[in-house]
Amino acid sequence: MNDDSHAPHGAIPAPATPVTPKLPTVDASIFPRGGLDVLSREEVQRLRDASAGGMHELLRRCALAVLTTGSTSDDPRAARELYPDFDIQVHQLDRGLRLDLLNAPAMAFVDGQIIRGVAELLAAVVRDLVYTAIELAPEYESELDTSAGISDAVFRLLRNARVLQPSDPNLVVCWGGHSISRDEYMYTKDVGYQLGLRGLDICTGCGPGAMKGPMKGATIAHAKQRRRHSRYIGITEPGIIAAESPNPIVNHLVIMPDIEKRLEAFVRLGHGIIVFAGGVGTAEEILYLLGILLREENAKLPFPLVLTGPTAAAPYFEQIDAFIRLTLGDAAAARYRIVIGDPAEVARAMADGIDKVRRYRIEQKDSFFFNWSLDIPLAFQQPFVPTHEAMAALDLHHGRKPHELAADLRRAFSGIVAGNVKEEGMRRVEELGPYQIHGDRDMMQALDALLRAFVEQRRMKIAGEYKPCYEIVA
Questions:
Q1: Distance CA 78, CA 440 (A)
Q2: Does residue 214 register a pLDDT over 90?
Q3: CATH at residue 208
Q4: Which tens digits make up the pLDDT trace of 39-69?
Q5: Per-residue pLDDT averaged across 263-268, rounded?
Q6: Spatial contact of 436 and 389, defined as CB atoms under 8 Å apart
């Protein structure tokens, strides 16, 4: 444990001035299980080399996020400021590898022993970052120039994470905000409970709020139904996990290399999707899925999609629905159903929808564990880097094909997410000012009204006053 205190850098400490002690820390060595303990010497050496090279800082940030599991902060810099001396080192042993944690958060330990769930999530961090570094290395870049190549990469990443299971379809993806009201959070728990009673497992973005509630509700229902092997899958990416630590219920953590592969993992892995109230990240997810479902190639593909919240959230979904109809048309709205204040009906609708998915995949001879039939164009798969130039160049005008407009609207919301919670995006905004988003006047007015509502309802950030990272230019 380390509880030393430091005066501000460059200042002369005065006896009468109180100083803030560091949070308690622990030094520990752990031996990861579950995949990382069955490695060849060459694989362990590659793991050690990768973690000691250019990706070490990324490994450190993601590991720190896991060790502060349960944190409600959405500031990617907060954990590093609280634990500035934290480090993680990888060491090769004959029987596998050892992770040395230096000045690790004491909250991850009980009586000197790391909490088992935290240790499993930490192993997942190492597994996924290293697999990405090795399997998606520069020599494989040509494979990522095609839609099929990217989908295959997503498949390999999920298979390596051991979340692809050849069982009956039962995985519900739940999207929603990390910053939501207490009533909205309790509603997500109620929905999760109803899903769990029907034997459905949960997949979310792994963070707090609407990503935690469904899992928490499902755990009670699964216990009542005596389900012993429930899956609570959390899918994130490096820029997000540093701002949104995993919630403690996640028992399968997957870190995808970027937001586009994360989104594809959701729709390939899940058998249906429920959307709760949220902010720009949730809007991004909705537009991503609708843009894909609006393609002619996916017109007959069953994909249950339910937007839901408590009665108080009805205006939120009315505004989302109006924005979708204005930008993408009524055909997009026909792909989802809005259910207000009825968790049991949400679960029934999802169970019925997944049954149709099951029958369709049997007819099409498609797998239950990975939705190969879903056609995802390259425009939805290629990583979008939200520079100021790229954000200003987005084509947000009427007259485009709905799925093409949806792709650029998704990018606009993705850029705002980056400016809100991703360190690189926050740094760009601090240096160059807010992003500027241009488009048709009615579309920009609707977008501005939607974003203002998110701000007023405190859906942008959990803590502190929100300073917009964007400007809407009609």
A1: 38
A2: yes
A3: 3.40.50.450
A4: 666 666 666 666 666 678 888 889 999 998 8
A5: 98
A6: no
DSSP assignment of 218-275 equals: HHHHHHHTT-SS--EEEEE-HHHHTTSPPPTT-SEEEE-SSHHHHHHHHHHH-SEEEE
Model pLDDT for residues 170-193, shown as the tens digit of each residue: 999 999 998 899 999 999 999 999
- Report the domain count for the chain: 3
Q: Stretch 22-29: mean pLDDT, rounded?
A: 88
Residue 153 within any structural domain of the chain: no
Same domain, 46 and 188: no
Is residue 288 domain-shared with residue 334, that is, in the same domain? Answer: yes
313 and 389 in a single domain? The answer is: no
What is the value of pTM for the model shown? 0.89
Domain region containing 64: 25-135
Same domain, 69 and 174: no
Count of beta carbons in the 10 Å neighbourhood of residue 392? 13
- The amino acid occupying position 84 is P
Alpha-carbon separation of residue 315 from 38, 184, 309, 474 (angstroms): 52, 13, 10, 25
Residue 386: phi and psi, rounded to 5, are: -80, 70
Is there a single domain that holds both residue 460 and residue 357?
no
Domain final position from 116, 135, 154 = 135
Strand partners of residue 97: 92
Specify whether 286 is located in the same domain as 431. no
SS3 315: helix
Residue 47's pLDDT is 63
Nearest Cα residue to 199 out of 160, 227, 228: 227
Q: Are 340 and 314 within 8 A, CB to CB?
A: yes
> Which of the four pLDDT bands, split at 50, 70 and 90, describes residue 355?
very high
Average pLDDT, the chain: 88
pLDDT mean over 392-403? 94
CA distances from 58 to 119, 123, 408, 423 (A): 18, 14, 28, 12
- Does 247 share its domain with 390? no
Q: Which residue has the tokens 């594809």?
A: 264
Q: Is residue 20 part of a domain?
A: no
SS3 (DSSP) at 423:
helix
Please indicate, yes or no, whether residues 244 and 202 belong to a single structural domain of this protein.
yes
